[in-house]
Amino acid sequence: MLxxxxxxxxxxxxxxxxxxKTEVDALAMPPRVLFSPTLANYTGLLETRFLRxxxxxxxxxxxxxxxxxxxxxxxxxxxSRGRLRRGGGIxxxxxxxxxxxPIAFAIPFFLAYRTLGWLDTLGGLIVVYLTFNLSLVxxxxxxxxxxxxxxxxxAAYIDGASVGRALxxxxxxxxxxxxxxxxxxxxxxAWNDFFFALVLTRSSAMTAPVAIxxxxxxxxxxxxxxxAGSIIVALPVLVFAWPVRxxxxxxxxxxxxKG
Amino acid sequence: xxxxxxxxxxxxxxxFVTSLTPLDLTRPRSFRFVGLxxxxxxxxxxxxxxxxxxxxxxxxxxxxxxxxxxxxxxLLLNRPxxxxxxxxxxxxxxxxxxxxxxxxVWKILFTPLLTPxxxxxxxxxxxxxxWLTDPDLALWTIVVADIWEWTxxxxxxxLAALQMLPAEPLEAARVDGASAWQxxxxxxxxxxxxALVVAGLFRLIDSFKAFPLVFVMTGGGPGVATEPxxxxxxxxxxxxxxxxxxxxxxxxxxxxxxxxxVVALRLPxxxxxxx
Lengths: 259, 275
Hints:
Oligomer: heterodimer
CATH topology of the largest domain in chain A: MetI-like fold
Largest interface: A-B, 81 and 78 residues
CATH class of chain B: Mainly Alpha
Distance between the termini of chain B: 41 Å
Number of helices of chain A: 14
Helix content of chain B: 55-70%
Structural class of chain B: mainly alpha
CATH superfamily of the largest domain in chain A: MetI-like
CATH topology of chain B: MetI-like fold
CATH architecture of the largest domain in chain A: Orthogonal Bundle
Shape of chain A: globular
């Protein structure tokens, strides 16, 4: 089992190894399995403008997550408790936006942003990421709310609480683990995006994944920086994946599969 | 709900409208109604049909392999193991990695001057084939990368289904002296069928989006040998600014996705039915 695991993960381990090699070691033939590791590629990254795209990625992913939760959680609550409970149309629409190829959204957003002057802005990217993250929040949070018995907030209503107050003070604390998992999945979705950032940004709003690919195209084949940048972008994902491992299936399948 | 409609329904309607125009960003006044001209051109476009064919081969190969390997891996991981939680999670690393990183990893592994495959071939005196630039091999490099990236997805779904299998039919068959192979073939596999269908359908729909792999590894080449419809639409819209024509291509893709989503929505989900 461990041998199989090692084989499956070997491509990533090779990437990690390459990021710690000097250029001579990286291009040595036959390839070197043993080498003296160096952090030169990582310090070299700091000299390029990689920090800016990295910061952009953090900002865009964080704000998108907050916005999606702020808009999506009340909507999910309404769907779970309201008369729309059996809203098959909305369910279909959410599944559909999850399945539609990103380019279907990229073209209209590109045209609209071109007119509005939103191309290459962080705000523009944040709005685009709502297309998939808002659906995800509504879908996942509805399932979490469904699992909470309505009798819980009915007690609050008897005490004279408004719907908003009941949601904030009574339901959300109970649903906190669900909110946290949903937030992480939203963040990872935005963090992992390559396509929208490629199409809708040029330089000032460029995110880390696009910056890495640019090392490939414009700076020749700068494998040291490409691999070091890749590891930096992959690390937070690997850290965050652990707490949400149970929700990965429902997150990826947008709830169509009960994970 | 209004925001969701605004950011999803609005753009798709706009996409449909542009698909009825010859919109080209380099030509002024090209945003005018021409009816179904783009769709007629599409039917006569050899490169479009090539892209459909590339997509069909890519999807067929990857989905089949992901279901087979995912089932095998799920069965392995369903047995008692030390550190089971950690090992299971380690197996899904390819799934959670940013897709662009996956693409870079496999670009390195299939670049003859960089690949550790040389460790195997050099002692034998063999050279690496030009994996990414050989028209017969390039698509298979993407297939391999896609299988690696997404097999954990089918594994997770099938593992969840395995854990929900009712114990009674298995016990009864064991008492009757069925072999492990008979148990698997006659009881486990039929019970897993709904999960296999769900996993396969999701992978099929998502296989239309293998953009980062194509973009980084082959760029659709050599020629158009690895250019799926999604990528052809991308090059037309953002490489050549032919937005109208590209939109028609995407509307076509959306129609296929819609049909498949309708099927997906009617599936009973993960509840296995015992016949």
